[in-house]
């Protein structure tokens, strides 16, 4: 078994290690998680199996009796009075618990403008430029003020952050852009829906190749950033100065190398990369082209970058620089034209007259350069405009050769997949390239995804952004309602408010159905009594380790019970099933965290507010239950179907592990039961679960199944190394609670979903066809 | 897998009973000597291990804790098969949980092996007498009817908890001695924890549990 395992393992290893590339190669022995850093594609180093043992309990769980059954929740501190504290304090607590902790804003400059029109006749858009550090990687982000210039004065509340550039095809996105229709460029404000087109959602610094500083004698200084893809961002005009501070902040975190030829141009390298740092410290020429570039960017560019890196300081360098800049300009121009034509199309489709979306401009000051680029909600979108993206996408598919071996014959449906090494010259594979996880979506950035009326402009980009970076606590109530489908993207803010009123009324009516059951009636309905008592029992033991639910007979407990009782009335066929309180608790917490606290310093919610919170939590829970309900059906058919699908995916993605489990009577996979039933609610801490669930809701269908596979594959060495029978497997699985590392597992799951490709989709489709969704999408 | 063993017997026990009767709390009290009234609900199945010295033998108890709600029975009943002893738990303040013991018995008949050792446990005996819904005598009568041992326990007050588990373990050891006389005799003179090498193990390992 072991011997046959090793071959495929290596190949699968590549799945996991692609991003580690050269940088990873330097410290291959290190744990996988630590090697999360930008770029690094191109060179593909197949790392040996070391990643497997990187997490989780390293020892045999049976080796010592202590390790078993620890619940992560218990480790949390038991403190604070219900409902915790002021909502703002609550957030900070939550943030500490989030997996993406370590988000730090290192630079903020208010009132930084872009000019939609090249000639600067139009209205400038004012916003906040920030540099955010997350997990050692620096991100640049510029978000326009939502409500116009006034916000500039007190706009410091929200930390700027936003979408990663990792968004699906720019074409579709641009096509959906209704923004800007029917509004004059000289209109009253900097608000307008057009402004959101220019938002620069967080870009990792590793994606920024060059910076050019403009210091005209008259007018504000500004900088133009050029991405590694050759696209330029709109120039940032520092209306109140601060270019110097910006540059010196950048210098702290990245290698800025001034061009000898053009002193206002710098090349940027993110020093988060240890390889870069060490090379830099050797005082070679400085901006060594990242190895990542060779694979990631367009061929011409990367070769230029490469030569740049190796050229010595004099004439050669100068020539390279001017060539590089020229190429950037050309590319920028072509990307701009492409995006502009797409935008023009969308304006026509949108039907609004007088569209004022930026058309093609001359390069001019560079101000509008990113117009097309950011049209899709992300400047990097143009990296993926269809013309460029399509062949890459195919290549990517091509890399993944899913070769099914005797599918009909093998009862387990074992397929063997093989990743063909994509050479460095294959044009790169952006989706495979490990990118730094962007900081969570803030409320401000969420709004930048919406038009002036509050309609979500591009649901797909929004979902991708959430899948990539998660959501800040302040943005969760709104974001979750969108993700769960309580609010529809096309609803304006006014419509949302109206629907919320309607939902509240509906909830109130449903709630009366049980609150009106008197003692007499209850005495005549044993089913009701039984369910009520079960709910009351379970509410008392739901997430008690979390401060929000720490105190018995608190308002939080009452609300939890009320919503569950109402749901019992609403869905009497299903009634109340254990586990539902686990599903509701995070939702109620998120909804309540944003509710205004009572007057007079009370932590309690006023009664009408509490009722409103219950109503919103109820409908969000109802939406979640629509996905999860099949899990709770009495015949467990769906749970079995899900376990079956998990089995198929495991056979597809890790045949040796599948075979190992099969040989030991463990293929029932019952030890994954709780993972599937509650989407890992019990395996992670409360705050991690918030991050996990939004990722599952925003991610591809069946991601929770891939997450199960990811957990097993992360521990495959432990599993393969033991001759565990079912009991021991279960004991091991139970003991994982609180010991799993969410972020890396989520990334694994996404990669596995991509790796499984069509065969994986077949498995999920079969599950879906059997009505076994169980929370799939 | 010739691993050194630090026990003489491996015994697998199962806790069943209605939700909220205190199965997990009994287990927590026994395995970790702690109690919290705000323990989480058990989803699917959970388990703990405790090693105890019974009659000079080291016994490793592997105790499986199941979800109480009927909805999960199709899953939990899969675990009956490998169980050597089953603790049927009810709540002395909850009449329904006591009546349901008969249903749980039916489950055992369906899914568990025939010679499984059963014990009836009335938990929460510390509760005020005014709250008691099932008098001791009724519990005893039911236990007699099914010919099993009966205990009233309190996980909270730590009454009778160790006794229940020890009693079941002892019964099972007796049966094992009957069926595996050599395993019983080769105790190594009252043995310390690390004296024995592989005895009861094959028995437990061969009782493939949980896979259906």
TrEMBL record, chain A:
The protein's UniProt keywords, in alphabetical order, are: GTPase activation
Q: Which SMART domains match?
A: TBC
Which spans does this entry mark as compositional bias, Acidic residues? 65-79
UniProt-annotated stretches for the region Disordered: 1-40, 52-99, 152-193, 354-400
Indicate the segments forming the Rab-GAP TBC domain, all copies. 470-700
Q: Name one GO molecular function term.
A: GTPase activator activity
According to the UniProt record, one GO cellular component term is:
cytoplasm
InterPro entries listed in its UniProt record: Rab-GAP-TBC_dom, Rab-GAP_TBC_sf, SGSM1/2_RBD
Entry annotated with the keyword Transmembrane: no
Please give the superkingdom of this protein's source.
Eukaryota
Q: Which Pfam families does its entry note?
A: PH_RBD, RabGAP-TBC
Stretches of Low complexity bias are at 376-400
DNA repair is among the record's keywords: no
The family database entries (Gene3D superfamilies) matched by this protein are listed as:
2.30.29.230, putative rabgap domain of human tbc1 domain family member 14 like domains, Ypt/Rab-GAP domain of gyp1p, domain 3
Biased composition, Gly residues: where in the chain? 155-193, 354-375
Name-wise, this protein is TBC1 domain family member 17-like
> Which species is this record about?
Micractinium conductrix
Specify the taxonomic lineage.
Answer: Eukaryota, Viridiplantae, Chlorophyta, core chlorophytes, Trebouxiophyceae
UniProtKB/TrEMBL annotation, chain B:
Topology within the bilayer: Lipid-anchor
The subcellular localization recorded is: Cell membrane
User: A Gene Ontology molecular-function term?
Assistant: GTP binding
Task: Please give the InterPro entries that the UniProt record associates with this protein.
Answer: P-loop_NTPase, Small_GTP-bd, Small_GTPase, Small_GTPase_Rab
Q: Which UniProt keywords apply?
A: Cell membrane, GTP-binding, Lipoprotein, Membrane, Nucleotide-binding, Prenylation
Check the record and name the Gene3D superfamilies matching this protein: P-loop containing nucleotide triphosphate hydrolases
Question: Which intervals of the chain are annotated as region Disordered?
Answer: 180-212
Please give the SUPFAM superfamilies that the UniProt record associates with this protein.
Answer: P-loop containing nucleoside triphosphate hydrolases (SSF52540)
Cellular component terms, GO, for this chain's entry?
Answer: plasma membrane
Q: Which Pfam families match?
A: Ras
Asked if Hydrolase is a keyword of the record, the answer is no
Family indicated by similarity:
Belongs to the small GTPase superfamily. Rab family.
Q: What is this protein called?
A: Rab8 -family small GTPase
Q: Which gene encodes it?
A: g149
